[in-house]
Design goal:
By secondary structure, the protein is of the alpha/beta class. The protein has 2 domains: 49 residues, Orthogonal Bundle (Helicase, Ruva Protein, domain 3); 94 residues, 3-Layer(aba) Sandwich (Dna Topoisomerase Vi A Subunit, Chain: A, domain 2). The protein is 44% helix and 13% strand. The chain contains 8 helices and 6 strands. The strands form 2 sheets. Strands 4-3-5-6 form a 4-stranded parallel sheet. It has a two-stranded antiparallel ribbon with strand order 1-2. The radius of gyration is 21 Å and the shape is globular. The mean pLDDT is 91.
């Protein structure tokens, strides 16, 4: 069946969301039109306002409606610790952990030459400028444990070396509560090579 042009545009627009395929987009469109027009109008208004008003924090590059985000403005953060993450969602995960109280820098991705993503897309110049201006004692590389994340972490460690700052990488390995026989060999090898001495 052919839908009207506007309905097709709505379905295609909804498909822009991650994980939303044609059937899910169609179901969402029908739901909004059948029973949720007020909610749809509210969603449209909030979406438009968010797209126009949310920018990037001038220091850490996370999403913010202000020039600087709340974390960068907070006097309670330890500015001698800098944690580099791939996305704003990673900051949320780190904050939920409750053990880190330093500042952040968001790359907004990872190095991926096949996708045309190089250092210039990750704000590396802004990062090195931040490191040179701040009194940072340790940089924590918290990129994802993927091939691209590892390459990005290695590249960043090389770029930070000239500043004579301690660079650490978050540990990867065997999850708590799991059993060794069910762990993949790559994860197990990483955990084995990164083992710590028991004191």
């Amino acid at each position: 069946m052919e839908y009207s042009p506007l309905l097709m545009q709505l379905i295609e627009a909804l498909r822009a969301l991650p994980g939303v395929g044609p059937k899910t987009a169609q179901r969402m469109a029908f739901q909004l039109l059948e029973r949720g027009r007020e909610k749809g109008l509210h969603l449209a208004a909030v979406l438009q306002h968010a797209m126009q008003s949310i920018q990037h924090c001038k220091q850490c590059r996370t999403f913010s409606e202000n020039e600087y985000c709340k974390l960068c403005q907070s006097p309670l953060r330890d500015s001698s610790l800098l944690c580099i993450v791939e996305s704003p969602a990673d900051i949320v995960a780190m904050e939920q952990m409750g053990h880190y109280h330093g500042i952040y820098f968001v790359l907004m991705g990872h190095l991926s030459p096949l996708d045309g993503i190089g250092p210039e897309h990750l704000g590396i110049d802004q990062l090195t400028s931040l490191i040179s201006k701040q009194t940072i004692k340790e940089v924590i590389l918290a990129t994802n444990p993927t091939v691209e994340g590892e390459v990005t972490a290695h590249y960043l460690s090389e770029r930070i070396k000239p500043y004579a700052i301690k660079v650490t990488r978050i540990a990867h390995g065997v999850p708590i509560g799991s059993e060794l026989e069910y762990i993949d060999s790559g994860t197990l090898a990483h955990a084995f090579l990164g083992r710590d001495e028991i004191v």
